Amino acid sequence: MKHSTFLSSRSTAGTAEWMAPEMLRSEPSNEKCDVYSFGVILWELSTLQQPWGGMNPMQVVGAVGFQHRRLDIPDDMDPAVADIIRKCWQTMKPQSNHSNNRAVDNGGLQFNRLNCLVRDSKLRPTFAEILAALKPLQKPSAGSQVPRPTASGRHRNDRSSAAER
Questions:
Q1: pLDDT at residue 34 in the model
Q2: pLDDT in tens, 22-50
Q3: Residue 134: other Cβ atoms inside 10 A
Q4: Rounded distance, CA 86 to CA 69, Å?
């Protein structure tokens, strides 16, 4: 029941700049759409820029949903973060097992094998996989630990005496 109602919704609500391509095309959605959106948010946090700045929402729908464009990842971005963002946006794989990119002449029409792609949002990682990739990037900061309660119910960091209470 959950799979057919919650995870495969056909309703579309959101802001085009953060929406997955399949949502922009009004195709069925699932949790992988949220993974795509998380990639946009991570890009936004990493670049301190608004996604698709200078474009109106309809231009974003065309660019992302139908022209298969993605935000540019700056060369100076942390490579580990850039890799996570790319994985969040991943939807393409070659249609055949051939990995070469040689041009094929078919009666005067030329095309690259890289242009023959299957678009599949299932290729995106899960949030659990994204969290696992983010974990090594987490930097511990002093004093950021949440105090744990002791058996008496007091927190270990709680230095106030009983007389002060």
A1: 93
A2: 999 999 888 999 999 999 999 999 999 99
A3: 13
A4: 12
Q: Do 51 and 37 meet the contact criterion of CB atoms below 8 Å apart?
A: no
Residue 2 scores a pLDDT above 90: no
Predicted pLDDT of residue 23: 93
Question: What's the Cα-to-Cα distance from 16 to each of 60, 119, 131, rounded to whole Å?
Answer: 6, 19, 24
Q: Residue holding tokens 């971005």?
A: 77
The answer to whether the CB of 50 falls within 8 A of the CB of 44 is: yes
List alpha helices for the chain, DSSP H: 2-5, 21-24, 31-47, 57-60, 79-89, 127-134
Would you state the pLDDT for residue 12? Answer: 53
**What is the pLDDT, as a whole number, of residue 93?**
58
Structural contact between residues 127 and 37, judged by C-beta atoms closer than 8 angstroms: no
- Has residue 85 got a pLDDT over 70? yes
Cα of 138 vs its chain's centroid, Å = 18
Single out the residue of 3, 53, 48 nearest to residue 29, CA to CA: 3
Q: In order of start, what are the domains of the chain with their CATH numbers?
A: 20-93+120-136 (1.10.510.10)
Chain position carrying tokens 């002449």: 105
Contacts of 85 (CB under 8 A, 6+ apart): 39, 42, 43, 46, 73
